[in-house]
């Protein structure tokens, strides 16, 4: 006999936990550097549109599947469409989740290391121009990065072992408000830096021609997926701990507002400082680990602000990673009858081991670091990719969009839109129900078209030239 299913304490708990899942490295590490690379305001505008027409409907799909079925990401499909193969969608989700978790934990480990470096002021003693080399030397030292990766996985396991209420909910209720407060504090602080206004201009002054470039649209679409955490059953799992009397529409809206809000806050914390110090916004994934330490070193109160920043980054990462752990743990508990303790440790160990090659991907092989995999790259469409590049791109650009498409197809063809709408409306007053019409409209028309476009692009069926004009890639017979 299985123990009774745990539930969130209420709608607030659900929103905080799910916002915790959504708000993560994607918001504070990835969003600012993508915005920096893709022209700032242009990217921000398209991203917001993608979240609204694309992320929000998908989020509702996952919520309603999970809440109705009251099961994990695989079992939910079995309950709603028995004797079909739709459960394979859940299996794809579990595998995707495990891979994302493995590399996510490595990057999160870097943020733990930078907390440590801020406390000991290790980078504060360096020349500002040496930050990139310093970061490179750190990631090359894989014994250290693997150690931090293990510490981070350990933290996640410790939280998830506590269960839905006493683990995930308890920590989300403490950490999420703290995270908001910390980011707001930094945003207020950098507001007073000389020349900060250029950062606001960069983020919000709209140049529509830039915004309409297709590569900006594709990048924004992928980011919307990753940041909201849709496409792999994570929100099916969290939704399954929700009660029938809670409102799914308002919950989804709040999660979206929190997720977008934190991404914008991260931008407002970072770009005014970047411009004030005359640095470049388009420095890519190193923006947070190379550009920011240079700023903290030069800014008054920088050591304090730096500490707040990296702690906030780590908090955001923990509350996201635990949701990925919980997806697989819930599967092992519901489908395999495993105990929570055993399941959580198993997931932690598996994700740790799978993350090791990712940690090695940043280290060149040298006599003192013979296992480095940085130069062990494979060629794909002219780019040299490391193990990390492969797993990161494969999951974000292929697994999540495919998973999302399958989840939408399940609602349309497996379960039935009418059934889904009926269950979605449970727990709402009639005023909310006009949103069901919009939801159904987006799912039937807008979402499929957008998904097909992204997937075609990810599979390399078409690409863009240097001016943003569309070209067909050789696969389709176009010139390169
Ligand atoms: N959304 C989180 C972030 O932005 C990461 C995350 C959590 C995620 N759960 C997910 C990404 C599910 C994809 C799928 O950092």
Q: What order do the SSEs take from the amino end to the carboxyl end, as H and E?
A: HHHHHHHHHHHHHHHHEEHHHEE
Helix share of residues? over 70%
Total number of strands? 4
- Alpha-carbon Rg, integer: 22 Å
Instruction: Summarize the biggest pleated sheet.
Output: 2 strands, antiparallel
Bound molecules: tryptophan
In percent, how much strand structure appears in the residues? Answer: under 5%
Low-confidence stretches: 475-480
Shape: globular
Structural class determined from secondary elements:
mainly alpha
- Distance separating the two termini: 60 Å
In DSSP terms, counting alpha (H) and pi (I) runs of 4 or more, how many helices? Answer: 19
Q: Averaged pLDDT, please?
A: 90
Task: Describe the structure in your own words.
The chain is built from 19 helices and 4 strands. The protein is globular, with a radius of gyration of 22 Å. The C terminus is likely disordered. The structure holds tryptophan. Tryptophan binds next to helix 1, helix 2, helix 11 and helix 15.
